[in-house]
Amino acid sequence: MSDSSLTFAFEQSASPMPVSERAALLENPGFGRVFTDHMVTIRYSEGQGWHDARVHPRRPLEMDPASAVLHYAQEIFEGLKAYRTADGGASMFRADMNAKRFRDSAERLAMAPLPEELFLESCRQLVKIDRDWIPASEGGALYLRPFMIASSVFLGVKPADEYLYMVIASSVGAYFKGGAPSVTLWVSDHFNRAGPGGTGAAKCGGNYAASLLPQKEAIAEGCDQVIFLDTIEKKWIEELGGMNVFFVMDDGSMITPPLGGTILPGITRDSLLTLARDRGLTVREERYSIDQWQADANSGKLRESFACGTAAVLTPIGRVRGHNGLDFTIGNGGPGIQTEQLRTALVDIQRGNAPDPHGWVERIF
Ligand SMILES: *Cc1c(COP(=O)(O)O)cnc(C)c1O
């Protein structure tokens, strides 16, 4: 049987969460702390290829302490949402892009690439079996977390020959109730996220591990999030720890830093580029420096800035601070109009409340 047509074995949970308990959790699920009853696992070994695809009750992993991932961090992940449709069904947004990016990340980390169809099917199966966990509340969704670890038991430094792919799901509420409040960013000038030739374009846990100390610094400085600069000239804006960034000018045109190996190719970023062009806005993928950002914010040439990613969709940036007294406000410091319009346009497509001209929404059931 070929890899991509694996049949999933099903083991239904014998003790799913009682309906009343689940309902209580879904009232205010927050982000990433309420988990569903089931999970998916698929195994890979060099001899057998991808095999043993299962949907089964969510349970702890048993791992040998010499499992490669625990030592050399050969791990990648994805994040995407399944939405409840108005008629009680479910859909996913551009999951094919996540499947493709997962392959790209696997390649960069020298891991076995998972066939894209298997990625998609694993997500669909989990959404189907845990359908009751998709919040019906406005802004709620089922956040899917596909990930893969090197599971070979070996301390030698080389790519593993066994991998374990899994998908777990978490019921999430609206990231922000009402409109997203704007955030203050801290410019990290002595820590970097990613350099040329590194793993910046791969969605791997290691990138996040490296971003935690600068993020901690941002919090200690009274800011919400850290924003990173390029490693060579230390002036070009790259992205946040887990979100891409856009700049909105006074003529409505937008700039976002170009992909090129050090920035994660966000699917929200790509979708917003397309939606903005659909609306006749000029969008440029080009480098933008921290000095220019400050000058344009102060002169009024720059009207808005926002960060974007699957979890929070669009987050307005109200203020930017850094070492040596760097401190400037964007617009009036609150959410901007174009940011709000783009957010609404994107969310309406994702949730099936607007036409889907690009075929981004897949109906699961
Ligand atoms: C996941 C991620 C993003 C956003 O990507 P989306 O596909 O839009 O969710 C941006 N930057 C980093 C570093 C990320 O890990």
Give a description of the structure.
With 365 residues, the protein is of the alpha+beta class. The protein has 2 domains: 3-173, D-amino Acid Aminotransferase, Chain A, domain 1; 178-350, Alpha-Beta Barrel (D-amino Acid Aminotransferase, Chain A, domain 2). 25% of the residues lie in helices and 28% in strands. It is built from 8 helices and 18 strands. Strands 1, 2, 3, 4, 5, 6, 7, 8 and 18 form a 9-stranded mixed sheet that branches. Strands 9, 10, 11, 12, 13, 14, 15, 16 and 17 form a 9-stranded mixed sheet that branches. Strand 12 (244-249) and strand 13 (254-256) form a beta hairpin. Helix 3 (95-108) crosses helix 4. The radius of gyration is 21 Å and the shape is globular. The chain binds pyridoxal-5'-phosphate. Pyridoxal-5'-phosphate is lined by residues 79, 203, 239, 242-244, 264, 266-269, 309-310.
Biggest sheet layout: 9 strands, mixed
Q: What is the strand tally? A: 18
Low-confidence stretches: none
* Cα gyration radius (Å): 21 Å
| Helix segment tally | 8
Number of domains: 2
Identify the overall geometry.
globular
Short descriptors:
365 residues; alpha+beta; D-amino Acid Aminotransferase, Chain A, domain 1; D-amino Acid Aminotransferase, Chain A, domain 2; 9-stranded mixed β-sheet; 25% helix; binds pyridoxal-5'-phosphate
